[in-house]
Amino acid sequence: MSRIRFGPEGWKAVLAEEFTFANVKALTQGIAAYLNSNNLGKKGVVVGYDSRFLGDKIARAVARVLVANGIKVFLLRRPVPTPVVAFAVRERATGGALVVAGGSCPYEYQGLKFIPEYAGAAMPAVAEEIQAETDRVLECRKVYELSLEEGGKLGLVEEIEVENDYLRHLSRMVNPEIFKEGQLKVVVDPMFGAAVGCLDRCLEAFGCEVRVVHGYRDVLFGGLRPEPVDTSLDDLKRAVRAYEADLGLALDGEGGRLGVVDETGEFLTPNRVLCLVLDHLLKTRSFRGPVARTAATTRVLDRIAKKNGLGVNETPLGFHYIGECLRERGCMLGGDEEGGLSVLGHVPCKDGILAGLLVAEMVAFAQKSLSEIYGQFTEEYGRTENQRLDFCYREQDRERVTARLQEFSPKAIAGVKVEKTLSVEGKKFVMEDGSWVLVRNPETRPVVSVYIEAQDRVRLADIQREIQNALGLSSQ
Protein backbone atom coordinates (compact mmCIF):
# COMPACT_ATOMS: atom_id res chain seq x y z
CA MET A 1 0.00 0.00 0.00
CA SER A 2 1.27 3.48 -0.91
CA ARG A 3 1.15 6.68 1.11
CA ILE A 4 -2.29 8.30 1.39
CA ARG A 5 -2.36 12.08 1.89
CA PHE A 6 -5.69 13.00 3.42
CA GLY A 7 -6.74 16.64 3.82
CA PRO A 8 -9.91 18.70 4.33
CA GLU A 9 -10.90 18.01 0.71
CA GLY A 10 -10.19 14.31 1.15
CA TRP A 11 -7.80 12.25 -0.93
CA LYS A 12 -7.59 12.12 -4.72
CA ALA A 13 -5.35 9.97 -6.88
CA VAL A 14 -5.19 8.21 -10.24
CA LEU A 15 -7.39 5.14 -10.51
CA ALA A 16 -5.54 1.80 -10.52
CA GLU A 17 -2.25 3.49 -9.59
CA GLU A 18 -2.60 4.92 -6.08
CA PHE A 19 -6.40 4.96 -5.97
CA THR A 20 -6.86 1.22 -5.54
CA PHE A 21 -9.50 -0.76 -3.68
CA ALA A 22 -6.87 -1.73 -1.12
CA ASN A 23 -5.99 1.91 -0.40
CA VAL A 24 -9.64 2.95 -0.32
CA LYS A 25 -10.40 0.27 2.26
CA ALA A 26 -7.38 1.27 4.35
CA LEU A 27 -8.50 4.92 4.38
CA THR A 28 -12.06 3.88 5.21
CA GLN A 29 -10.74 1.79 8.11
CA GLY A 30 -8.92 4.90 9.36
CA ILE A 31 -12.10 6.97 9.08
CA ALA A 32 -14.07 4.26 10.89
CA ALA A 33 -11.53 4.35 13.71
CA TYR A 34 -11.86 8.13 13.90
CA LEU A 35 -15.67 7.89 14.01
CA ASN A 36 -15.75 5.26 16.74
CA SER A 37 -13.08 6.94 18.86
CA ASN A 38 -15.11 10.19 18.74
CA ASN A 39 -18.39 8.43 19.58
CA LEU A 40 -19.83 9.30 16.14
CA GLY A 41 -20.06 5.83 14.64
CA LYS A 42 -23.23 5.01 16.56
CA LYS A 43 -25.07 7.74 14.61
CA GLY A 44 -24.41 5.99 11.32
CA VAL A 45 -22.75 7.31 8.18
CA VAL A 46 -24.05 8.29 4.75
CA VAL A 47 -22.12 6.83 1.80
CA GLY A 48 -22.48 8.56 -1.57
CA TYR A 49 -20.68 8.53 -4.88
CA ASP A 50 -20.38 10.46 -8.13
CA SER A 51 -20.76 9.25 -11.71
CA ARG A 52 -17.09 8.50 -12.36
CA PHE A 53 -15.83 5.08 -13.40
CA LEU A 54 -16.34 2.42 -10.70
CA GLY A 55 -17.94 4.95 -8.32
CA ASP A 56 -20.74 2.61 -7.25
CA LYS A 57 -18.41 -0.35 -6.68
CA ILE A 58 -15.95 1.75 -4.69
CA ALA A 59 -18.82 3.07 -2.56
CA ARG A 60 -19.90 -0.47 -1.76
CA ALA A 61 -16.34 -1.39 -0.77
CA VAL A 62 -16.38 1.62 1.58
CA ALA A 63 -19.71 0.45 3.03
CA ARG A 64 -18.38 -3.06 3.65
CA VAL A 65 -15.55 -1.71 5.80
CA LEU A 66 -17.84 0.59 7.77
CA VAL A 67 -20.36 -2.13 8.65
CA ALA A 68 -17.52 -4.45 9.69
CA ASN A 69 -16.63 -1.75 12.24
CA GLY A 70 -20.18 -1.72 13.59
CA ILE A 71 -21.19 1.53 11.83
CA LYS A 72 -24.58 1.70 10.16
CA VAL A 73 -24.42 2.77 6.53
CA PHE A 74 -27.05 4.87 4.75
CA LEU A 75 -26.13 4.01 1.18
CA LEU A 76 -27.38 6.28 -1.60
CA ARG A 77 -28.97 4.35 -4.44
CA ARG A 78 -27.49 6.32 -7.34
CA PRO A 79 -24.81 8.92 -8.11
CA VAL A 80 -25.59 12.32 -6.58
CA PRO A 81 -23.77 15.65 -6.22
CA THR A 82 -21.66 16.09 -3.11
CA PRO A 83 -23.96 18.86 -1.72
CA VAL A 84 -26.79 16.31 -1.73
CA VAL A 85 -24.69 13.96 0.40
CA ALA A 86 -23.97 16.81 2.83
CA PHE A 87 -27.69 17.55 2.98
CA ALA A 88 -28.36 13.89 3.84
CA VAL A 89 -25.93 14.15 6.78
CA ARG A 90 -27.93 17.03 8.21
CA GLU A 91 -31.34 15.50 7.50
CA ARG A 92 -30.43 12.09 8.94
CA ALA A 93 -28.36 13.55 11.82
CA THR A 94 -25.57 11.04 11.10
CA GLY A 95 -22.00 11.06 12.33
CA GLY A 96 -20.89 12.15 8.86
CA ALA A 97 -20.57 10.90 5.31
CA LEU A 98 -18.03 9.36 2.99
CA VAL A 99 -18.22 10.49 -0.64
CA VAL A 100 -16.51 8.82 -3.55
CA ALA A 101 -15.97 11.84 -5.81
CA GLY A 102 -13.19 13.21 -7.98
CA GLY A 103 -14.38 16.83 -8.12
CA SER A 104 -12.85 18.79 -11.01
CA CYS A 105 -9.96 16.39 -11.54
CA PRO A 106 -9.39 14.71 -14.95
CA TYR A 107 -11.32 11.53 -15.72
CA GLU A 108 -8.51 9.18 -14.65
CA TYR A 109 -8.75 10.42 -11.05
CA GLN A 110 -11.10 9.38 -8.28
CA GLY A 111 -11.35 10.58 -4.70
CA LEU A 112 -12.70 9.87 -1.24
CA LYS A 113 -13.68 12.65 1.13
CA PHE A 114 -15.17 12.77 4.59
CA ILE A 115 -18.01 15.12 5.52
CA PRO A 116 -18.27 15.49 9.33
CA GLU A 117 -21.49 15.59 11.32
CA TYR A 118 -21.89 19.34 10.75
CA ALA A 119 -22.43 18.67 7.00
CA GLY A 120 -19.50 20.75 5.75
CA ALA A 121 -15.95 20.04 4.65
CA ALA A 122 -13.63 18.54 7.27
CA MET A 123 -11.51 21.01 9.21
CA PRO A 124 -7.72 20.45 9.28
CA ALA A 125 -7.82 19.03 12.84
CA VAL A 126 -10.32 16.37 11.72
CA ALA A 127 -8.26 15.57 8.63
CA GLU A 128 -5.14 15.22 10.76
CA GLU A 129 -6.85 12.73 13.09
CA ILE A 130 -8.01 10.70 10.11
CA GLN A 131 -4.52 10.83 8.59
CA ALA A 132 -3.01 9.51 11.83
CA GLU A 133 -5.54 6.68 12.05
CA THR A 134 -4.96 5.79 8.40
CA ASP A 135 -1.18 5.73 8.87
CA ARG A 136 -1.66 3.22 11.67
CA VAL A 137 -3.84 1.07 9.42
CA LEU A 138 -1.26 1.16 6.63
CA GLU A 139 1.41 0.13 9.11
CA CYS A 140 -0.44 -2.78 10.70
CA ARG A 141 -2.41 -3.71 7.54
CA LYS A 142 -5.55 -4.59 9.51
CA VAL A 143 -8.70 -3.78 7.57
CA TYR A 144 -12.05 -5.28 8.56
CA GLU A 145 -14.72 -6.10 6.00
CA LEU A 146 -18.22 -7.58 6.04
CA SER A 147 -20.54 -8.27 3.13
CA LEU A 148 -23.47 -5.92 2.70
CA GLU A 149 -25.81 -8.91 2.81
CA GLU A 150 -24.56 -9.81 6.28
CA GLY A 151 -24.59 -6.16 7.25
CA GLY A 152 -28.21 -5.92 6.16
CA LYS A 153 -29.16 -8.86 8.35
CA LEU A 154 -27.58 -7.02 11.29
CA GLY A 155 -29.53 -3.87 10.52
CA LEU A 156 -26.38 -1.99 9.51
CA VAL A 157 -27.26 -1.21 5.88
CA GLU A 158 -30.09 0.96 4.59
CA GLU A 159 -30.41 2.21 1.03
CA ILE A 160 -31.80 5.73 0.85
CA GLU A 161 -32.83 8.45 -1.62
CA VAL A 162 -32.60 12.11 -0.66
CA GLU A 163 -32.62 13.98 -3.98
CA ASN A 164 -36.29 14.98 -3.76
CA ASP A 165 -35.93 16.26 -0.19
CA TYR A 166 -32.84 18.20 -1.25
CA LEU A 167 -34.61 19.79 -4.22
CA ARG A 168 -37.57 20.74 -2.02
CA HIS A 169 -35.11 22.37 0.37
CA LEU A 170 -33.59 24.34 -2.51
CA SER A 171 -37.03 25.60 -3.50
CA ARG A 172 -37.20 27.19 -0.04
CA MET A 173 -33.76 28.77 -0.41
CA VAL A 174 -34.87 30.77 -3.45
CA ASN A 175 -38.04 32.75 -4.18
CA PRO A 176 -40.14 30.94 -6.82
CA GLU A 177 -42.40 34.00 -7.12
CA ILE A 178 -39.56 36.02 -8.61
CA PHE A 179 -39.31 33.60 -11.54
CA LYS A 180 -42.92 34.33 -12.47
CA GLU A 181 -41.98 37.88 -13.51
CA GLY A 182 -40.75 36.59 -16.86
CA GLN A 183 -39.79 33.25 -18.35
CA LEU A 184 -36.05 32.79 -18.44
CA LYS A 185 -34.25 30.83 -21.12
CA VAL A 186 -31.34 29.01 -19.50
CA VAL A 187 -28.75 26.56 -20.83
CA VAL A 188 -27.40 24.14 -18.20
CA ASP A 189 -24.14 22.22 -18.56
CA PRO A 190 -23.57 19.59 -15.83
CA MET A 191 -20.36 18.59 -17.66
CA PHE A 192 -21.36 14.89 -17.75
CA GLY A 193 -21.06 14.76 -13.96
CA ALA A 194 -23.05 13.84 -10.88
CA ALA A 195 -25.31 16.92 -11.13
CA VAL A 196 -27.02 15.72 -14.32
CA GLY A 197 -30.77 16.30 -13.92
CA CYS A 198 -30.56 18.51 -10.81
CA LEU A 199 -30.27 22.19 -11.72
CA ASP A 200 -32.31 21.86 -14.91
CA ARG A 201 -35.07 20.07 -13.01
CA CYS A 202 -35.29 22.90 -10.46
CA LEU A 203 -35.32 25.61 -13.11
CA GLU A 204 -38.04 23.87 -15.09
CA ALA A 205 -40.15 23.59 -11.92
CA PHE A 206 -39.87 27.39 -11.57
CA GLY A 207 -41.14 27.92 -15.12
CA CYS A 208 -37.83 28.43 -16.94
CA GLU A 209 -37.25 27.23 -20.47
CA VAL A 210 -34.20 25.01 -20.15
CA ARG A 211 -31.80 23.47 -22.63
CA VAL A 212 -29.12 21.03 -21.49
CA VAL A 213 -25.72 20.26 -22.96
CA HIS A 214 -23.60 17.33 -21.74
CA GLY A 215 -26.60 16.12 -19.77
CA TYR A 216 -25.70 12.46 -19.58
CA ARG A 217 -23.05 10.33 -17.89
CA ASP A 218 -19.69 10.13 -19.62
CA VAL A 219 -16.86 8.78 -17.46
CA LEU A 220 -14.37 10.47 -19.83
CA PHE A 221 -16.10 13.88 -19.47
CA GLY A 222 -15.90 14.48 -23.21
CA GLY A 223 -12.11 14.54 -22.96
CA LEU A 224 -12.07 17.69 -20.78
CA ARG A 225 -11.68 18.26 -17.06
CA PRO A 226 -15.16 18.65 -15.50
CA GLU A 227 -14.18 22.11 -14.28
CA PRO A 228 -16.49 25.09 -15.01
CA VAL A 229 -13.77 27.51 -16.11
CA ASP A 230 -13.64 29.76 -19.16
CA THR A 231 -11.52 27.46 -21.31
CA SER A 232 -13.78 24.41 -20.76
CA LEU A 233 -17.15 25.96 -21.61
CA ASP A 234 -17.04 26.49 -25.38
CA ASP A 235 -20.05 24.21 -25.96
CA LEU A 236 -22.08 26.07 -23.34
CA LYS A 237 -21.18 29.44 -24.88
CA ARG A 238 -22.21 28.28 -28.35
CA ALA A 239 -25.49 26.88 -27.00
CA VAL A 240 -26.33 30.13 -25.19
CA ARG A 241 -25.82 32.12 -28.38
CA ALA A 242 -27.61 29.58 -30.60
CA TYR A 243 -30.71 29.39 -28.39
CA GLU A 244 -30.60 33.14 -27.60
CA ALA A 245 -30.70 32.19 -23.93
CA ASP A 246 -30.57 34.62 -21.01
CA LEU A 247 -27.64 32.84 -19.40
CA GLY A 248 -25.67 29.62 -19.19
CA LEU A 249 -24.87 27.72 -15.99
CA ALA A 250 -22.21 25.02 -15.67
CA LEU A 251 -21.45 22.66 -12.78
CA ASP A 252 -18.28 20.75 -11.99
CA GLY A 253 -18.07 16.96 -11.82
CA GLU A 254 -19.50 16.74 -8.30
CA GLY A 255 -21.87 19.72 -8.41
CA GLY A 256 -19.98 21.91 -5.95
CA ARG A 257 -18.72 24.70 -8.22
CA LEU A 258 -20.58 26.97 -10.63
CA GLY A 259 -19.51 28.60 -13.87
CA VAL A 260 -21.63 31.36 -15.44
CA VAL A 261 -21.92 32.56 -19.03
CA ASP A 262 -23.91 35.69 -19.90
CA GLU A 263 -26.34 36.16 -22.79
CA THR A 264 -23.52 37.03 -25.20
CA GLY A 265 -21.56 33.89 -24.41
CA GLU A 266 -19.01 35.69 -22.23
CA PHE A 267 -17.71 33.95 -19.11
CA LEU A 268 -18.18 35.72 -15.77
CA THR A 269 -15.36 35.13 -13.32
CA PRO A 270 -16.31 33.54 -9.98
CA ASN A 271 -15.35 36.76 -8.20
CA ARG A 272 -17.87 38.75 -10.23
CA VAL A 273 -20.56 36.15 -9.69
CA LEU A 274 -20.04 36.25 -5.92
CA CYS A 275 -20.39 40.04 -5.88
CA LEU A 276 -23.57 39.99 -7.96
CA VAL A 277 -25.15 37.29 -5.80
CA LEU A 278 -24.37 39.16 -2.57
CA ASP A 279 -25.81 42.38 -4.01
CA HIS A 280 -28.93 40.47 -5.08
CA LEU A 281 -29.41 38.87 -1.66
CA LEU A 282 -29.17 42.27 0.01
CA LYS A 283 -31.92 43.56 -2.30
CA THR A 284 -34.27 40.60 -1.87
CA ARG A 285 -33.68 39.07 1.58
CA SER A 286 -34.35 40.38 5.06
CA PHE A 287 -31.66 38.36 6.86
CA ARG A 288 -28.29 39.99 7.43
CA GLY A 289 -24.91 38.79 8.62
CA PRO A 290 -21.20 39.08 7.90
CA VAL A 291 -19.65 37.96 4.62
CA ALA A 292 -16.97 35.27 4.48
CA ARG A 293 -14.36 35.09 1.73
CA THR A 294 -10.95 33.54 1.29
CA ALA A 295 -7.77 35.62 1.09
CA ALA A 296 -7.68 35.05 -2.68
CA THR A 297 -11.24 36.26 -3.28
CA THR A 298 -12.16 39.75 -4.46
CA ARG A 299 -12.21 42.64 -1.98
CA VAL A 300 -15.14 44.15 -3.89
CA LEU A 301 -17.19 42.02 -1.50
CA ASP A 302 -15.77 44.23 1.26
CA ARG A 303 -17.09 47.34 -0.51
CA ILE A 304 -20.58 45.85 -0.70
CA ALA A 305 -20.44 44.74 2.92
CA LYS A 306 -19.20 48.14 4.14
CA LYS A 307 -21.93 50.02 2.30
CA ASN A 308 -24.53 47.79 3.94
CA GLY A 309 -23.03 47.85 7.43
CA LEU A 310 -21.79 44.24 7.35
CA GLY A 311 -18.56 42.74 8.59
CA VAL A 312 -16.17 40.64 6.51
CA ASN A 313 -14.34 37.48 7.57
CA GLU A 314 -11.19 36.81 5.53
CA THR A 315 -10.09 33.19 5.77
CA PRO A 316 -7.18 31.08 4.53
CA LEU A 317 -7.80 29.28 1.24
CA GLY A 318 -10.12 26.28 1.40
CA PHE A 319 -13.89 26.16 1.58
CA HIS A 320 -13.73 24.38 4.93
CA TYR A 321 -12.83 27.74 6.48
CA ILE A 322 -15.78 29.37 4.73
CA GLY A 323 -18.06 26.62 6.02
CA GLU A 324 -16.80 27.26 9.55
CA CYS A 325 -17.78 30.93 9.23
CA LEU A 326 -21.24 29.97 7.96
CA ARG A 327 -21.69 27.57 10.88
CA GLU A 328 -20.24 29.58 13.73
CA ARG A 329 -20.38 33.26 12.78
CA GLY A 330 -23.79 33.57 11.16
CA CYS A 331 -22.40 34.70 7.80
CA MET A 332 -25.12 35.38 5.25
CA LEU A 333 -22.87 34.38 2.34
CA GLY A 334 -19.55 32.64 1.99
CA GLY A 335 -17.54 32.15 -1.18
CA ASP A 336 -14.12 31.38 -2.58
CA GLU A 337 -12.04 32.32 -5.61
CA GLU A 338 -12.93 29.11 -7.49
CA GLY A 339 -16.71 29.54 -7.60
CA GLY A 340 -17.68 27.81 -4.36
CA LEU A 341 -20.65 29.41 -2.62
CA SER A 342 -23.16 28.79 0.15
CA VAL A 343 -25.53 30.92 2.21
CA LEU A 344 -27.05 31.10 5.65
CA GLY A 345 -29.64 28.34 6.18
CA HIS A 346 -28.07 25.94 3.70
CA VAL A 347 -25.50 23.20 4.32
CA PRO A 348 -22.08 24.79 4.95
CA CYS A 349 -20.41 23.31 1.88
CA LYS A 350 -20.01 24.70 -1.61
CA ASP A 351 -23.09 24.06 -3.72
CA GLY A 352 -23.10 24.94 -7.41
CA ILE A 353 -26.75 23.97 -7.79
CA LEU A 354 -27.89 26.50 -5.19
CA ALA A 355 -25.51 29.08 -6.67
CA GLY A 356 -26.99 28.52 -10.13
CA LEU A 357 -30.52 29.00 -8.85
CA LEU A 358 -29.54 32.25 -7.14
CA VAL A 359 -27.95 33.59 -10.33
CA ALA A 360 -31.06 32.70 -12.33
CA GLU A 361 -33.28 34.31 -9.68
CA MET A 362 -31.14 37.45 -9.86
CA VAL A 363 -31.65 37.76 -13.63
CA ALA A 364 -35.39 37.17 -13.28
CA PHE A 365 -35.63 39.77 -10.50
CA ALA A 366 -33.68 42.45 -12.37
CA GLN A 367 -35.53 41.83 -15.66
CA LYS A 368 -32.30 42.84 -17.37
CA SER A 369 -29.61 40.89 -19.15
CA LEU A 370 -26.70 39.58 -17.11
CA SER A 371 -24.29 41.95 -18.85
CA GLU A 372 -26.59 44.89 -18.03
CA ILE A 373 -26.78 43.78 -14.39
CA TYR A 374 -23.00 43.69 -14.15
CA GLY A 375 -22.69 47.06 -15.89
CA GLN A 376 -25.10 48.61 -13.40
CA PHE A 377 -23.22 46.97 -10.54
CA THR A 378 -19.88 48.46 -11.63
CA GLU A 379 -21.40 51.94 -11.73
CA GLU A 380 -22.08 51.57 -8.02
CA TYR A 381 -19.05 49.58 -6.83
CA GLY A 382 -16.43 50.03 -9.52
CA ARG A 383 -14.72 47.58 -11.85
CA THR A 384 -11.80 45.33 -10.98
CA GLU A 385 -9.75 42.68 -12.75
CA ASN A 386 -8.55 39.43 -11.19
CA GLN A 387 -5.98 36.89 -12.28
CA ARG A 388 -4.33 33.75 -10.98
CA LEU A 389 -0.95 32.70 -12.31
CA ASP A 390 0.95 29.49 -11.55
CA PHE A 391 4.73 29.43 -11.95
CA CYS A 392 6.31 25.98 -11.88
CA TYR A 393 9.91 25.40 -10.80
CA ARG A 394 12.20 22.43 -10.28
CA GLU A 395 11.97 20.67 -6.92
CA GLN A 396 15.71 21.21 -6.39
CA ASP A 397 15.07 24.98 -6.54
CA ARG A 398 12.50 24.93 -3.73
CA GLU A 399 14.92 26.21 -1.09
CA ARG A 400 15.92 29.16 -3.26
CA VAL A 401 12.33 30.06 -4.17
CA THR A 402 11.18 29.77 -0.55
CA ALA A 403 14.03 31.98 0.66
CA ARG A 404 13.23 34.68 -1.91
CA LEU A 405 9.57 34.70 -0.89
CA GLN A 406 10.47 34.97 2.80
CA GLU A 407 12.80 37.88 2.09
CA PHE A 408 10.34 39.65 -0.22
CA SER A 409 8.92 42.59 1.71
CA PRO A 410 8.43 45.52 -0.70
CA LYS A 411 7.50 49.04 0.36
CA ALA A 412 5.77 49.54 -2.99
CA ILE A 413 4.69 47.33 -5.89
CA ALA A 414 4.58 48.70 -9.43
CA GLY A 415 4.87 52.22 -8.11
CA VAL A 416 2.09 52.07 -5.51
CA LYS A 417 2.79 52.01 -1.77
CA VAL A 418 2.10 48.78 0.12
CA GLU A 419 -0.38 49.67 2.84
CA LYS A 420 -0.55 46.29 4.56
CA THR A 421 1.38 43.01 4.53
CA LEU A 422 -0.37 39.88 5.75
CA SER A 423 1.02 36.42 6.41
CA VAL A 424 -1.88 34.32 5.19
CA GLU A 425 -1.37 31.33 2.90
CA GLY A 426 2.01 32.83 2.05
CA LYS A 427 2.27 36.61 1.75
CA LYS A 428 -0.45 39.08 0.83
CA PHE A 429 0.31 42.69 -0.02
CA VAL A 430 -2.48 45.28 -0.06
CA MET A 431 -1.69 48.55 -1.87
CA GLU A 432 -2.99 52.07 -1.30
CA ASP A 433 -5.07 52.01 -4.49
CA GLY A 434 -6.99 48.92 -3.32
CA SER A 435 -5.08 46.48 -5.50
CA TRP A 436 -3.55 43.41 -3.84
CA VAL A 437 -1.41 40.39 -4.56
CA LEU A 438 -1.21 37.05 -2.76
CA VAL A 439 1.83 34.80 -3.30
CA ARG A 440 1.66 31.15 -2.24
CA ASN A 441 4.31 28.43 -2.32
CA PRO A 442 2.63 25.23 -1.08
CA GLU A 443 4.72 22.43 0.39
CA THR A 444 2.99 19.75 -1.66
CA ARG A 445 3.90 20.99 -5.18
CA PRO A 446 6.81 22.90 -6.77
CA VAL A 447 4.65 25.79 -7.93
CA VAL A 448 4.20 29.41 -6.87
CA SER A 449 0.61 30.62 -7.20
CA VAL A 450 0.10 34.35 -7.56
CA TYR A 451 -3.35 35.92 -7.15
CA ILE A 452 -3.77 39.55 -8.22
CA GLU A 453 -6.60 42.07 -8.10
CA ALA A 454 -6.32 45.54 -9.65
CA GLN A 455 -8.58 48.23 -11.06
CA ASP A 456 -7.66 47.47 -14.68
CA ARG A 457 -5.64 45.08 -16.84
CA VAL A 458 -2.72 47.49 -17.25
CA ARG A 459 -2.19 47.76 -13.51
CA LEU A 460 -2.66 44.00 -13.16
CA ALA A 461 0.03 43.32 -15.77
CA ASP A 462 2.42 45.76 -14.06
CA ILE A 463 1.99 43.95 -10.73
CA GLN A 464 2.50 40.59 -12.38
CA ARG A 465 5.78 41.63 -14.01
CA GLU A 466 7.20 43.10 -10.82
CA ILE A 467 6.30 40.04 -8.70
CA GLN A 468 7.66 37.68 -11.33
CA ASN A 469 10.97 39.55 -11.62
CA ALA A 470 11.39 40.02 -7.86
CA LEU A 471 10.95 36.32 -7.14
CA GLY A 472 12.85 35.10 -10.19
CA LEU A 473 9.87 33.19 -11.59
CA SER A 474 9.65 32.14 -15.23
CA SER A 475 6.36 31.59 -17.07
CA GLN A 476 5.92 28.21 -18.72
Automatic annotation (TrEMBL):
Kindly list the cofactors needed: Mg(2+)
| Classification via SUPFAM superfamilies | Phosphoglucomutase, C-terminal domain (SSF55957), Phosphoglucomutase, first 3 domains (SSF53738)
Keyword list (alphabetical) reads: Isomerase, Magnesium, Metal-binding, Phosphoprotein
* Reaction catalyzed: alpha-D-glucose 1-phosphate = alpha-D-glucose 6-phosphate
| Key word Magnesium present | yes
Q: Which residues form the Alpha-D-phosphohexomutase alpha/beta/alpha domain?
A: 4-136, 165-265, 270-381
Is the keyword ATP-binding in the record?
no
The lineage's top-level taxon is Bacteria
Could you provide one GO biological process annotation from this protein's UniProt record? purine ribonucleoside salvage
Q: Which GO terms describe its molecular function?
A: metal ion binding; phosphoglucomutase activity; phosphopentomutase activity
What the entry lists under InterPro entries is as follows: A-D-PHexomutase_a/b/a-I, A-D-PHexomutase_a/b/a-I/II/III, A-D-PHexomutase_a/b/a-II, A-D-PHexomutase_a/b/a-III, A-D-PHexomutase_C, A-D-PHexomutase_C_sf
Specify the Alpha-D-phosphohexomutase C-terminal domain's residue ranges.
410-468
Q: What is its EC number?
A: 5.4.2.2
Which PANTHER family would you find in this protein's record? PHOSPHOGLUCOMUTASE 2B-RELATED, PHOSPHOMANNOMUTASE 45A
> So what family is this one in?
Belongs to the phosphohexose mutase family.
Protein name (record): phosphoglucomutase (alpha-D-glucose-1,6-bisphosphate-dependent)
The organism is Syntrophothermus lipocalidus (strain DSM 12680 / TGB-C1)
